[in-house]
Amino acid sequence: MIEKEQNKKYTVVGTDIEEVKRLNRQSGLSYNQVKELLARKLLDK
Q: Which residue in 10, 12, 25, 33 has a CA-CA distance of 20 to 30 Å to 39?
């Protein structure tokens, strides 16, 4: 377990970068993905 902690990357203020990336992957569509989806739907009409 100590090995895992040594491999983690943190920002200057202590944010766990890998945890943020993991949570972002689980959060759904990004802002740009939503914009693209809406643009495609508008063009299909």
A: 25
